[in-house]
């Protein structure tokens, strides 16, 4: 079948009912190119505190339309329209007729539209999408992933009908099994010849075969090839070598499938092995939004995200809490990022009034099928997660449903492992509610009540997770899994080795502030496969769960989860929404043993004298800067991260002392000093010998605006993007973190400004504006090519010379 991009030529508008249309009370259609997020283009509304989950963006209903033609020569062929994702409750109409729907916002779905078409004429397709009180995070609205028009001959290879497995691998050879579904839409018995050719990473053929396939009228048949590949190049995170399978019918239909040759093994004594080699998962939980792009899943954005996470030391991602996009899976394959792909955030128990739980009983099997069909040939996928923090996990009926979902996944794909992100506290929520009510009746004199629960949330979740109550209530939920996924239950890791000797564990969601102790548990216990931090990348919605909060002796308040408007992001994660690494990212890299040099970060001086009181998802409010205008002569705290034995801090050549660091001190040392501009240097020592150093310098003189694109040329393709980093520095290139100002962007040539913003977690300015204010001296512009040609990006800022960035789309 021939798959053609269906992303261009769309229009969108807020949906009006037919009576309003008759009265002329409708919004105008405006052109868009998919993937597109309509929610991001709405004005935020801070009047309703309940909208903090979706970053104070309102919901709504939007409709999309597109005209397209299918030639008369295609009459009698199979004509499909495929959507990789529409959020949410999609309704699709072709030439005014209902063609199909999909309630879940994260499933790919395919509609056979042939019966509705006018061949040789113009056709119209309309898609409705809606969102509102149905998500715990920023979801976006609309056709936010790619769309495709698919045309196949009457006898054809089924869409996603090629499945490649590698059941037998050794050093000399690998067996590659190719199963192909051939469909026959005619009324006659048909026999065709199926050819399969496997090529290696260099493009040369490594194995091939042919077989006749007879298919009954209106039916389908599965043809299988077992091909031997000599001296195979194996896929692994360290060497992500990909092969290609070209499957061809003698009628001309062909399908190309990318795959990797690799083996998976799992047991409680040797843990996870890939190609026989032990692997620990250095994992990042990620949401699906792309920062200033909103929910729009443009291919280059997914690729860049994987590249940055990989460079920061992660080797695995967990999709939270919905299936990943195809584009991200393809990037994970290419860059060696392992994947835990997750199905749902809810089953039958609502977490929001109108969420997917309303549709789950009728649709879950089809949505599981869609996820597995999407993932099957991706070597990066090693784990399927059947849910996240499902309240039913602590009940018999929940365990029964979990078993049904797990067995459904295994029936579809027995080559991967099944897990479930279980939160022990939610599994015993009835008991927790009783405890909280008791705490509310007992004031602070009785230990703090609810206030104490909020400020000590991490300890309480871990305590509950390790309790006998959770042990008994989750025993069956964990028993149906290959790997017990534990959210904030690291207190169980060691004890479960004795309680459940055959249980294999992965930390599906963990606090970033515990990575040092968690990683020691991972490395010390073979049955613990790895750690997935919440979160690898900051995201829109769940506003402020990781924000810095402070108390003073005169104003003591507990940490709170939600932040008021205009907070926009969770302000949590190793990477901010522009793709810039935060201090916690370098700390984690040191804990993983991947960075030998120390790292310097400085707590913002304006908070000195207060007590940090953030949630367990909050890192200290520190940045890698020694530029603090107005703080001269005032106290400041400097953080140094290192795995060395000792670290020394030097300020303008003077030693401020040498203190222990390393694992016994949680890889962290703090120095309190007085701010003075100049040079700050951290020197690490082991056995009295220097092992590395890190330096920060103060920016001086005039502010210089700098702009640099990630690449000099991009594809003339709407799935590509140019990322332009905007930075305020001094003449020597030192970042000017204390001189934020508004920057403006103009784009000339065959491209559009797709998004502009900063990492400021509480900004009001929309990302669709051509101007934004820098945050800590940084901002990001994203440019999307529309056709071949030369592109000129001009950047300006008050008091700075303009910068011109040339770009070529080809």
From TrEMBL:
- Which ranges carry the Glycoside hydrolase family 2 immunoglobulin-like beta-sandwich domain? 160-262
**What family does this chain come from, according to its entry?**
Belongs to the glycosyl hydrolase 2 family.
Which Gene3D superfamilies does UniProt cross-reference here? Galactose-binding domain-like, Glycosidases, Immunoglobulins
Database matches in PANTHER family: BETA-GALACTOSIDASE, BETA-MANNOSIDASE
UniProt domain Glycoside hydrolase family: residue ranges: 705-802
Q: Which GO terms describe its molecular function?
A: hydrolase activity
* Superkingdom of source: Bacteria
Annotated Glycoside hydrolase family 2 catalytic domain ranges read 272-432
Q: Which UniProt keywords apply?
A: Glycosidase, Hydrolase
Recorded source organism is Cryptosporangium minutisporangium
- What name does this protein carry? Glycoside hydrolase family 2 TIM barrel-domain containing protein
DUF4982 domain: residues covered:
633-691
Where do the Beta-mannosidase-like galactose-binding domain residues begin and end?
Answer: 62-130
């Amino acid at each position: 079948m021939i798959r053609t991009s269906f992303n261009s030529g769309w229009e969108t508008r807020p949906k009006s009912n037919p009576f309003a249309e008759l009265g002329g009370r409708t919004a105008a259609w405006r052109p868009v190119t998919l993937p597109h997020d309509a929610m991001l283009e709405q004005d935020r509304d801070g009047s309703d505190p309940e909208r903090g989950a979706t970053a104070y963006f309102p919901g709504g209903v939007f409709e999309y339309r597109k005209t397209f033609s299918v030639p008369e020569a295609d009459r009698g062929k199979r004509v499909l329209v495929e959507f990789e994702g529409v959020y949410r409750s999609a309704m699709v109409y072709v030439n005014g007729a209902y063609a199909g729907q999909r309630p879940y916002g994260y499933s790919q779905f395919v509609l056979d539209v042939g019966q509705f078409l006018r061949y040789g004429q113009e056709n119209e397709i309309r898609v409705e999408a809606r969102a509102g009180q149905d998500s715990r995070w920023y979801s976006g609205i609309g056709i936010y992933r790619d769309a495709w028009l698919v045309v196949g001959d009457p006898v054809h290879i089924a869409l996603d009908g090629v499945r490649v497995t590698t059941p037998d691998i050794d050093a000399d050879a690998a067996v590659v099994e190719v199963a192909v579904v051939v469909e026959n839409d005619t009324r006659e018995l048909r026999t065709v010849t199926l050819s399969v050719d496997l090529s290696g990473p260099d493009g040369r053929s490594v194995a091939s075969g042919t077989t006749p396939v007879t298919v009954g009228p209106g039916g389908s048949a599965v043809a299988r090839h077992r091909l031997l590949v000599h001296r195979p190049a194996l896929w692994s995170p360290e060497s992500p070598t990909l092969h290609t399978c070209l499957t061809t019918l003698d009628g001309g239909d062909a399908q190309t499938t990318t795959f990797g040759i690799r083996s998976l093994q799992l047991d409680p004594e040797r843990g996870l092995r890939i190609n026989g080699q032990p692997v620990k998962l250095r994992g990042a939980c990620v949401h699906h939004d792309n920062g200033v792009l909103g929910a729009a899943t443009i291919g280059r954005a997914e690729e860049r995200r994987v590249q940055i996470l990989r460079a920061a030391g992660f080797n695995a991602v967990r999709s939270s809490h919905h299936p990943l996009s195809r584009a991200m899976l393809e990037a994970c394959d290419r860059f060696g990022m392992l994947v835990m792909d997750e199905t749902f955030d809810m089953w039958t128990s609502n977490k929001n009034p109108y969420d997917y739980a309303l549709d789950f009983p009728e649709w879950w099997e089809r949505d599981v099928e869609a996820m597995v069909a999407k993932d099957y040939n991706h070597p990066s996928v090693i784990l399927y997660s059947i849910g996240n923090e499902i309240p039913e996990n602590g009940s018999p009926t929940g365990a029964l449903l979990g078993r049904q979902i797990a067995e459904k996944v295994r029936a579809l794909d027995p080559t991967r492992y099944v897990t479930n992100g279980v939160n022990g506290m939610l599994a015993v929520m009835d008991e927790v509610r009783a405890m909280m009510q008791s705490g509310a009746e007992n004031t602070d004199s009785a230990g703090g009540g609810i206030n104490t629960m909020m400020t000590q949330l991490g300890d309480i979740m871990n305590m509950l997770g390790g309790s006998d109550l959770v042990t008994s209530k989750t025993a069956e939920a964990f028993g149906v899994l290959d790997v017990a996924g534990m959210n904030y239950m690291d207190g169980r890791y060691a004890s479960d080795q004795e309680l459940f000797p055959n249980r294999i564990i992965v930390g599906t969601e963990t606090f970033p502030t515990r990575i040092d102790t968690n990683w020691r548990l991972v490395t010390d216990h073979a049955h613990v496969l790895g750690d997935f931090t919440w979160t690898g990348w900051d995201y829109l919605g769940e506003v402020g769960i990781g924000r810095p909060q402070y108390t003073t002796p005169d104003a003591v308040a507990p940490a709170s989860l939600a932040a008021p408007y205009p907070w926009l992001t969770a302000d949590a994660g190793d990477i901010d929404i522009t793709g810039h690494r935060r201090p916690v990212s370098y700390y984690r890299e040191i804990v993983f043993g991947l960075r030998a040099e120390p790292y310097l970060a400085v707590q913002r001086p304006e908070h000195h004298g207060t007590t940090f009181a953030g949630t367990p998802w909050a890192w200290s409010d520190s940045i890698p800067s020694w530029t603090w205008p107005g703080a001269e002569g005032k106290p400041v705290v400097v953080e140094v991260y290192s795995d060395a034995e000792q670290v020394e801090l030097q300020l303008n050549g003077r030693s401020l002392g040498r203190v222990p660091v390393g694992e016994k001190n949680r890889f962290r040392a703090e120095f309190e000093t007085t701010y003075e501009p100049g040079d700050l240097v951290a020197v690490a020592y082991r056995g009295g010998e220097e092992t590395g150093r890190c330096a920060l310098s103060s920016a001086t003189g005039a502010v210089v605006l700098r702009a640099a694109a990630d690449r000099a040329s991009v594809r003339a393709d709407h799935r590509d993007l140019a990322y332009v980093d905007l930075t305020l520095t001094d003449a020597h290139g030192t970042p000017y973190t204390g001189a934020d100002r508004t920057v403006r962007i103009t784009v000339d040539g065959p491209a559009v400004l797709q998004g502009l913003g900063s990492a400021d977690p509480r900004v009001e300015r929309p990302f669709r504006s051509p101007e934004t204010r820098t945050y800590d001296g940084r901002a990001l512009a994203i440019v999307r090519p529309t056709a071949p040609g030369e592109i000129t990006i001009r950047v300006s800022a008050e008091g700075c010379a303009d910068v011109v960035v040339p770009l070529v789309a080809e």
